Amino acid sequence: MLATYPADLGRVDREKLSKCIEECIACAQACTACADACLSEGMPAELAKCIRTNMDCADICNATASVLSRHTGYDANITRTILQACASACKACADECGRHTHMEHCRLCAESCRSCETACNDLLQALG
Amino acid sequence: MLATYPADLGRVDREKLSKCIEECIACAQACTACADACLSEGMPAELAKCIRTNMDCADICNATASVLSRHTGYDANITRTILQACASACKACADECGRHTHMEHCRLCAESCRSCETACNDLLQALG
Amino acid sequence: MLATYPADLGRVDREKLSKCIEECIACAQACTACADACLSEGMPAELAKCIRTNMDCADICNATASVLSRHTGYDANITRTILQACASACKACADECGRHTHMEHCRLCAESCRSCETACNDLLQALG
Amino acid sequence: MLATYPADLGRVDREKLSKCIEECIACAQACTACADACLSEGMPAELAKCIRTNMDCADICNATASVLSRHTGYDANITRTILQACASACKACADECGRHTHMEHCRLCAESCRSCETACNDLLQALG
């Protein structure tokens, strides 16, 4: 869709922007599914923090993907601060899921979070 | 992520479920981007209905993707009615964007909505 | 905000519309908080279905509140089907939380869901 | 709902937390309605930036309200960065709507955004 935007996108790095949108969407999906998979494990009490962090990360990744998908009336402060919040949520969730990598859903979710964190930080750097 | 779910998924058609989640996520993204692209066209007054339908469709597709990504404590009534709402929003948005296919963002968004509508209806039928 | 809408709202029952938006917002908030409170109880395994239904209900109520807050380019099919999905999610969540009314968060959440279900059905009837 | 949380809330200022959740929810609702009202004005081209900022602010306020409504497995970094993103989006939206206060929806939305920005900054300060 990025290529169909009718106005000028400005001097943004399109590749990093597009990569970051994709990572946010994939990470939100992984976190929603991981929260649910954790819930269905027999011992959700130990996974309470993991489930909560998954939910926060999904909400913030979804909001970030939406903000990054808009180019009209760009506001650098909104973009920067939501990217920072997203990187921070992804880091926390990758750390938390990273403690339970014996569960395949947590292992995959940690990977997705780490990858999204990197994409957010890359885009932040490219924005200057 | 679907393959990592630790409990029984029940007799759901995994392929149709997985396809429908993917379509909802792709459609939400297309609608969010199309609403923004419409906004940046010089004549958003004519596109007001299109923008609005895009926003509804994005919100409903996102909610549907989240509901479908959860398998714990499955409730058939919630799944069925949100799939019907999603099919209905996708149909409305495909029809509306379908009137402006000379704009590439609307053409692609209409395709994505039509494809998501089909996936919702296929899953509804498979659920019986 | 409803009173500030600059165009014609059509023949919608403003009181029922406004009531329904408020109920959806309050219910989404109650469900998000109840899911988290359930998570912090010592026995989330028994509350897994409750937590999941809370999350679905919160997502669907939020989407419904957004759709109902838009009046431009109104589409009756989208409004009707998302209201049906919302009533269905609220009913399921009220039933589920209604089994754990010894926990104050579930008791309040069940009330909020029941109240939102009624508001959705009232608005559906008023829409004809 | 805050009062029904079964575990320890920690040393958070409950009044400021509760105020901030309420402001985020009210601001998200005001922004969604203002975006739609702007769309229905006869000259949405001039309001394109306002509509876009409204949508960003609504998405970020909703995510922030959800994060703040969860207390289990609290992560200070997530809370702080999403509050900063929310304050930043509210400021941008208050500034933008503040240019169109002759339209009642923008005047009310600007007030709501300013009030939410203050609540986010107050809570940030209380968190230390």
Automatic annotation (TrEMBL), chains A, B, C, D:
<dbReference type="Pfam" id="PF03860">
    <property type="entry name" value="Csp"/>
</dbReference>
<dbReference type="InterPro" id="IPR005560">
    <property type="entry name" value="Csp_YhjQ"/>
</dbReference>
<protein>
    <submittedName>
        <fullName>Four-helix bundle copper-binding protein</fullName>
    </submittedName>
</protein>
